[in-house]
Structure formats: structure tokens, C-alpha cells
Amino acid sequence: SDGNVPSVVHSFEDIGPKFIFSIKVTTGSVPVSMASVTIHIPRDTKGQNPLMYLTGVHTDQAGDISCNAEINPLKIGHTSPSVSFKNENFRHIKELNCCRTASCSNVTCWLKDLQVKGEYFLNVSTRIWNGTFAASTFQTVQLTASAEIDTYNPQIYVIEENTVMIPIMIMKPHEKAEVPTGVIVGSVIAGILLLLALVAVLWKLGFFKRKYEKMSKNADEIDETTELN
């Protein structure tokens, strides 16, 4: 159905399964005075169905780290909001990400006075909205968050890979596969062409000619037998 499916959310468990990931920042042989990490979390589809819900951001206590994030925006646990889901077709979408197929919420963390050869962790807790994927049509789709780091001084601090992808594969094993009409028509045409090619080969090999001669011979024998009787 294309209609909205409302659901009352009393707790995080009503949203769906947890998805927790950690971002590790490792420094080299030069101290860094300031760096920022921006985490992009797919929030909604183009059809306004919710995807991931941010429930917490926890930072390493060893460093001077502060984060700006909209955590639990619906105040779940204090209120019981009603959330609606509508059918969307994800069959032709391989990935739900912040670039083209989803709108995102951002988490920005600032890391100050990073030590030489240090390790710093950002732990992000989310929930995946079950209702969206239950209402939508697909077999397999990848939900991808991402994170990027900036040191604000690329001339001094060279970062080989400043972006990392955080993929989640979501599968709906009982969903029937959709066979496009073009594939069906193409298969029929291919079958007809193959049959015509086979007939042409058999004709060149004289298969039908031999069959015709044998049938003619059998008919002549039947006529002769009839005359003798």
C-alpha cells in the first residue's frame, strides 16, 4: 500500500536495532593543535521516511574533545511521538547515502591539542528505523554513513585518507525479485533468434531434406503395398 503506516514510539527499542560505530583518530609524529571530525548520518529518504536515528555520541575522556550533535531530537523516552512510514521502491537504489539518495544529520567534533602518536575515539550510537524498510520494496540495499577529518592546515598535516565510509547492508530475503519487462521481452526475442539459428543450421546440414526423403519413401512403400493387396 502507498498509504502512510503510523507507529507510536515509546522507547528506542520501538525504532529498531542498534547500530554503534567508532571513529578512531590516530596522530603521527607531529602534534596537532586542532582537528575536526564531521560524521554524516543518513536521516531521511527522498520520500521523507526515517533511516537512522542518533541516540548518543561518546568521546574519549583522554583528550580535549567536544561535539555538536542533535541527539534524540524526538525526545523519545520523555514523549511518545507518532511516526509514519510509506512505501518506497528501493529496487533500483544500491545505496542510501548522503550524496544523492538521502538527507543527513551531521555530527561535528573538535579535537584540541592532539598528542604525538596518540589515539582518540568517537563512539556513535544510532538506531535503524525498522518501519521504513518494512514498508518499502527492495531485496538488498546498503545504508552508508561517512566521516571526514580536517586539520585546517593541509600544508603541514598531510592526510592520505580523510574520509571513511561506514556501510550497513540491509536485506529483505522474502521479497520477490522484480523481473523488468525489458528482460522478459529480450529473453523471448533471444529464444526466437536462437531457434531460427538452430533451424538454419539443421537445414544446411540436410536434416530436414533427409527427413523429407524418408517420409516420401515410406509413402511410396505404402502405395505399393496397397496396390498388391
Automatic annotation (TrEMBL):
<dbReference type="InterPro" id="IPR032695">
    <property type="entry name" value="Integrin_dom_sf"/>
</dbReference>
<dbReference type="GO" id="GO:0005178">
    <property type="term" value="F:integrin binding"/>
</dbReference>
<keyword id="KW-0812">Transmembrane</keyword>
<dbReference type="InterPro" id="IPR048286">
    <property type="entry name" value="Integrin_alpha_Ig-like_3"/>
</dbReference>
<feature type="transmembrane region" description="Helical">
    <location>
        <begin position="183"/>
        <end position="207"/>
    </location>
</feature>
<dbReference type="GO" id="GO:0007160">
    <property type="term" value="P:cell-matrix adhesion"/>
</dbReference>
<feature type="domain" description="Integrin alpha third immunoglobulin-like">
    <location>
        <begin position="9"/>
        <end position="84"/>
    </location>
</feature>
<dbReference type="GO" id="GO:0008305">
    <property type="term" value="C:integrin complex"/>
</dbReference>
<keyword id="KW-1133">Transmembrane helix</keyword>
<dbReference type="GO" id="GO:0009897">
    <property type="term" value="C:external side of plasma membrane"/>
</dbReference>
<dbReference type="GO" id="GO:0098609">
    <property type="term" value="P:cell-cell adhesion"/>
</dbReference>
<dbReference type="GO" id="GO:0007229">
    <property type="term" value="P:integrin-mediated signaling pathway"/>
</dbReference>
<keyword id="KW-0325">Glycoprotein</keyword>
<feature type="domain" description="Integrin alpha third immunoglobulin-like">
    <location>
        <begin position="89"/>
        <end position="153"/>
    </location>
</feature>
<dbReference type="GO" id="GO:0033627">
    <property type="term" value="P:cell adhesion mediated by integrin"/>
</dbReference>
<dbReference type="InterPro" id="IPR018184">
    <property type="entry name" value="Integrin_alpha_C_CS"/>
</dbReference>
<keyword id="KW-0472">Membrane</keyword>
<keyword id="KW-0401">Integrin</keyword>
<dbReference type="Pfam" id="PF20806">
    <property type="entry name" value="Integrin_A_Ig_3"/>
</dbReference>
<protein>
    <submittedName>
        <fullName>Integrin, alpha 2</fullName>
    </submittedName>
</protein>
